[in-house]
Amino acid sequence: AGEMLSKRVNMLSLIDTIVPAWFEMIPRNSSGGGGSRFSYTKYFALNIEGGEANGTSADRISTIFRCKSDCESLLESSGLRAEASARVAALFSHRMSGTERMRRMLAYVLHKQKKEQTATSIANSDPSSFSALVTKESEASPKKNPKQSAGLWAHVARAKSDRHWIEEWAQIDEDAGMISFYRKMQKKKRAVFRIATTSILSVSAMTKDDCPPFLGHDYAFLSIESIGRCTYLMLASQEERDIWLTTISKLLTDRVVYGSESSSLPPEATNSKLLDVDSPAHEFMHDSSMWDCRKRRIYNCGTFSFRSDRTNNDSNNPTVLAQRALEKAVQTMSDESISSRRYFLKLVSSFKTIQIKSLESEHHKLAFFLNLYHTMVLHAYLILGPPSTSLRFISLFKDVAYQVGDDIMSLAELEHCILRSQMSLPSSFLSRFVIPKSHYSCHLQISDYRINFALNCGSISTPAQVLVYSPDKLDGQLDDATRLALVETTSYQHGGRDVVITLPKVCQWYEQDFGKPDEAVALLEPYFREEVRERLQSCWQSEINAFDMSRIWIRYEDFSFACRALTLREHQHLWNGRYVRGSANSLPTNRVFLYELNGSVSS
Questions:
Q1: Greatest CA span in the chain, whole angstroms?
Q2: Interatomic CA distance for residues 514 and 296, integer angstroms
Q3: Burial per residue of 380-407, b for 16 or more beta-carbon CB atoms within 10 angstroms, e otherwise
Q4: Across the chain, what does the average pLDDT equal?
């Protein structure tokens, strides 16, 4: 496992060094790039020796751009296409998009070829197929008469995902209070993406370490931060970047925030204008072009990472990151400040660069994925609010997704294909058509009935509290989660010698995880309230060491799909490996605030 992880990390770093991104661009002449002058064509950025950058010597590495058709030809002529495809399939997720898969295959082939052959086959290809991304030639803005165009215009590339950029025109319209982006050669000049200047938190020039490794060029990069995400721009030069930086910074300085002239935000800032984003879907959810998302929408898209991160610190330690993220998610649900919510959204973006396979054991994996699951649940409720019907519940759990490491997973996939992968399917026949059948190499190899109680979707039929799981305390914490669920939901009635026990619905859905009825009662009895246990003792048959099930009737509680936010279970008291009874009867009833997309706050 360690060797495979090392190969995967090294390969991903190598790929991002050789082919750092792909672009959608308009070819500079009508015959180039296999496309017309009026249509976008995909180009790959290749870092090779003897590139075409200005002032680059033949033995220096620089970035050139080649259209997709040329890169397809390179893969075929190399004789390494099948090998590259197999290697990428063995090391990486099959859920990546076709273009992202080609980027990785292309990097593999360029690495495998001899350097001399690579430089010749690429650098000497037909010049008409080359399109420099941002030319320094003066081009007219989208307006027919540039002199009459309002605001500041620039020819930019905008990052659509961590490895995907698109060539566009961008305009700062101070009067409209918008930064708008337009497609090149578009007949109807309608903005395809906009940023309200009132929603901008900060703007900054990107450092060299944060920028994509496009070598041998003078490109400069700008980051525009709003509450939900960062928008990244690539401009032709540092001079042009600085003009945009100064213009936007002046807008932030001049605007009136909280009744004072300021471009900085106090920690308690909750100005509704900052939440009034132009497109909530673009702001908080991401249909990433790196992945075959289908119905999934990636929520941890607050920041992009343009380089593979190989550092070893707490932000890249999966266990520590998941614990911090869950704690912050719970805090953010009750903290209305912009700074708190922005910090949380940036924090969960760090999940994209972790290495899941670095988790040392099944205990580490289980603790990590439980914390991740509850973080994703609270993140979804923070943005959309808790679901109130079964249809909304199912839709949300299938749509809400995170990029975790070099893969994506929805809430439903995390629950059923990773955490419960070795456990039973629901007893309901129709449920089996709803549950995803995706395969993940990181899925758990263990089966533990207590996982059914540890998973908390926020339904009012489940406990209001959730634990922050830790690998070294996991066994006791699973006991605590099981006891907490059963103490709150289990009830009993008795008439004569019979006992009627009402169990949580999860015990019926996944009845095979608990065994036969007598086995299930024996398994769960240690977690019941004291009075339930005492009553059950009257049904115990010591001669056969089992309960007399002819006197015990089992019913199941109705499940409500109405959900609410969760709080943390802070006081966990162990006694001989079991958590002490009674502490769950005095649960705190914290007031929780839910953020809605229109910026309003409701309790």
A1: 98
A2: 32
A3: bbbbbbbbeeeebbeebbbbbbbbbbbb
A4: 81
